[in-house]
Each structure stands twice: as C-alpha cells, then as structure tokens.
Amino acid sequence: MQRRVEPLPALGRFDNGVHRYPVRIYFEDTDLTGVVYHANYLRYMERARADMLMLVGIDQRAIMTAGEGYFAVADVAISYRRPAMLSDDLTVVSRLTLIRAAATLISQQVWRGDELLTQATVTAAWLASNGRPQRQPAHWALRFNELRRQAETEN
User: For the residues of 46-107, what is the DSSP string, one character each?
Assistant: First the structure.
C-alpha cells in the first residue's frame, strides 16, 4: 500500500527581501454581506509573519519549547482602505523595516491584485521565557538586516 503524503501549508516566498504570502477569502472570514471582518486582517498578517520566520529558518515552536524565548507583538498601527470580499485572492506583503536589539519592525500590506486594502506597522518584541525583553540572537539580526537591505533596493 502506498503511503499518502499530505502537502505542507504554503509558506509564501521571498522576492528580493520582500515576503509574499497568499490568502484566499472563505465564507468563515466574512460577515453576512461577504465582507471580511476587520480583525481577520490581523490573522492574515500574523500567519504571514510566522511563515516568513519559518522561511528564514526560525522554528518558533522549537525555540519556545527549549525555553529560549518568543516573539510577541508589542505594537500594531493598522489602517483599512478597502474591504476584501468572499472568494478574493489576496497577498500579504511583509517587509522588515527596522531591526533593534530586542525588537523588529515589520511593514505589512494586504493587496488584492494591485489594490491596497490594508496596511500595518507591527513591532515584534523578542522576549525571554520570563516575559522580559532580551537581545535577538545575532545571526537573526544579521539575516533580518540582509532582507531589509534587499527590500530597500526594490523600492
């Protein structure tokens, strides 16, 4: 008997330091009018950030299990421009914009084709297992800065 292999979830992809993550809108994402509920944009952005880290080689679950720390959202500034609708295909575009010792700022946008729907600036703090800020591992900061520089050359 042949073993069935399940496909892995989409991690998105990097294009010159910019992470692009696909999202399809399903009925569960919307209200009765077919418009995406505003809080769901934060979910899409969270998924994109998590998968962006996975593509960089950061396994958040393993790091938390080892007691080394975790990322936590410390601040979000978000603006909504246009609504997404049932059955839309969206792209969450994420750019690392500022790397600090214990935090990273990420610019995120949600697009439907060439139409900007939502944009946010997210501050992700790196915390020790006791909840206090701590320095990010140096090799992460180097990789994050490399991606940031690549993304800057795209603008």
Answer: HHHHHHHHHHHT--HHHHHHTTS-EEEEEEEEEEE-S--BTT-EEEEEEEEEEE-SSEEEEE
Q: Give the CATH fold of the 13-154 domain.
A: Thiol Ester Dehydrase; Chain A (3.10.129)
pTM for this prediction: 0.90
DSSP state of 133: B
Burial zone of 130 (CB within 10 Å; 0-12 exposed, 13-18 middle, 19+ buried):
exposed
- The answer for residues whose C-beta is within 8 angstroms of residue 4's C-beta and 6 or more apart is none
Three-state SS string over 14-57 comes to EECCEEEEEEECCHHHECCCCEECHHHHHHHHHHHHHHHHHHHC
Residue tagged active-site, from 31, 59, 75, 89: 31
Q: Is position 31 annotated as part of the catalytic site?
A: yes
Copy the structure tokens of residue 129: 């297992």
Q: What is the pLDDT of residues 38-67, one digit of tens each?
A: 999 999 999 999 999 999 999 999 999 999
HSE-up (13 A, CA, CB side) for residue 114: 0
The residues spanned by each domain of the chain are 13-154
